[in-house]
Amino acid sequence: MNFILLSGGSGKRLWPLSNDVRSKQFIKIFKNGNTYESMVQRVYRQIHNVSENADITIATSRTQVSSIKNQLGDNVDICVEPCRRDTFPAIALAAAYLSDVKKIPLNQAVAICPVDPYVNKDYFEAIAELQKKAEKETIGLFLMGIEPTCPSEKYGYIIPETSNQISKVKSFKEKPTSDIAKKYISQGALWNCGVFVFKLEYIISKAHELIDFTDYYDLFDKYSSLEKISFDYAVAEKEKNINVMRFSGYWNDLGTWDSLTNEISENKIGKAILNNTCENTFVVNELNIPVLCMGIKNTIVSASAEGILVSEKSESGNIKSFVDNIEQEIMFAEKSWGSYTVIDIQDDSMTLKVTLNPGNSMNYHSHEHRDEVWTIISGTGRTIVDGMEEPVKPGDVITMEAGCKHTIFADTELKLIEVQLGKEISVHDKQIFKL
Predict the structure, then answer these.
(1) Quick check: helix, strand or coil at residue 188?
(2) Same structural domain for residues 94 and 204?
(3) Domain end call among 192, 225, 253
(4) Higher pLDDT, 265 or 190
(5) Collapsing DSSP states into helix, strand and coil, what is residue 295?
(6) 185 and 271 assigned to the same domain
(7) 58 and 101 in contact (C-beta within 8 Å)?
(8) Mind listing the pLDDT tens digit for each residue in 338-363?
(9) pTM metric for this prediction
(10) Is a pLDDT exceeding 80 seen at residue 365?
(11) For the purposes of burial, counting CB atoms within 10 Å of the CB of 423, is it exposed (0-12), middle (13-18) or buried (19 or more)?
């Protein structure tokens, strides 16, 4: 099984747990045993539960690479888009990556899936069956359509020719009004969930028809000049010979706080107290301080380093326009080596709490416009400062002046307080060196 998982989006609709580098698929909110997992971890695990040897490539932007590696490990295959160009260029680039870099045979089937649906195992079992059919058939493109549970205005619709499990596609419909959606459903319409299945040679051929390029490396270099266009518009809606599989299992697109809370197994995550007069209230608290709720109903409370949301559930889908007007530093981010939280910002300083995972290290780097001071608060490891290596333990303080090359290795989980000092503190002020 070959999967390309599309990981895009920003953190507007699930603010304050998400931000421009921490999209909704990275929020660890779903209970898995004694721990919590994110959407991307859940989907990745589910695919491997269906096929242990499944080949998974994640197509994403540069800003998400660190979060993906943090949550799925350094060995995960990632096809990085140089910039955002919508789903067709992303799929074309990922397909070329499979063919030219991973050397996957052109006659093998590939499934394109969003990285963030809330589904059960049968969803990926159905996709596996669709891949087998795609490899046997001469038809170029297969889709999976979701049996609608309501006349939703949020999704595009696929109109099949018949009510069979697999049918030719009659037409596609844009996101409708509720009344029009009812008419579509009466015609047997399915929600378009963004799943496409085809032989690799099919999409490589389509990419060459629409884009002038030689191979993956050439396409990567030309990527910023490509037209922004979705796969639906570029390919699916123009394809004359296309089939859709009807899927009636559970599927939920978790695009708002309201829909997300429907899948959370408990009504509080983190430090939270709800008195017995609260009803249908959910608290997700990433801060190390308690949140107390009393007598509130149908409410979402979410607290993180980015801010605090208190919303009536039905209103939570309208937060994007308000969040668009909030300007501030990224206050929390996951990196390939761990994570950091900003705990204080002043005119000439920024203070962060940094966590490095065992066996990981930062890049060996320097800053031109700021000094840094590290105070080790837990764990053990090693620093290298201008080529000199020293062991570190709780209580140690390491000072780096501007221009000084430095890094830190974590032997155990290592936590430190980093104080950045300077008048031009910026994430772009960083030069990386080889050790």
Answers:
(1) coil
(2) yes
(3) 253
(4) 190
(5) coil
(6) no
(7) no
(8) 999 999 999 999 999 999 999 999 99
(9) 0.88
(10) yes
(11) exposed
Q: Give Cα separations from 409 to 214, 268, 271, 392 (angstroms).
A: 41, 35, 31, 9
What's the pLDDT tens digit per position in 50-102?
999 999 999 999 989 999 999 999 899 999 999 999 999 999 999 999 999 99
DSSP percent split of the chain into helix, strand, coil, nearest 5: 25, 35, 40
User: Is residue 87 within 8 Å of 34, Cβ to Cβ?
Assistant: no
Among 357, 354, 320, smallest CA distance to 336 is for 357
Beta strands in 248-348 (DSSP E): 251-253, 268-269, 272-274, 282-285, 291-293, 299-304, 307-312, 332-335, 338-346
Label each residue of 239-263 as H, E or C.
CCCEEEEEECCCEEECCCHHHHHCC
β strands within 307-413, DSSP E: 307-312, 332-335, 338-346, 349-356, 364-366, 371-378, 381-385, 388-392, 397-400, 406-410
Q: Do 343 and 294 share a structural domain?
A: no
Q: What is the CATH number of the domain that holds 218?
A: 3.90.550.10
The answer to the question of residue 330 being in a domain is no
For 293-324, the pLDDT digits (tens) are 999 999 999 999 999 999 999 898 889 889 98
Q: Are 108 and 199 in contact (CB under 8 A)?
A: yes
Taking residues 138-163, what's their average pLDDT? Answer: 91
Q: How far is CA 17 from CA 74, 87, 309, in A?
A: 24, 25, 9
Q: Which amino acid is at 29?
A: I
Is residue 307 located within the same domain as residue 166? no
* CB 197 within 8 Å of CB 187: no
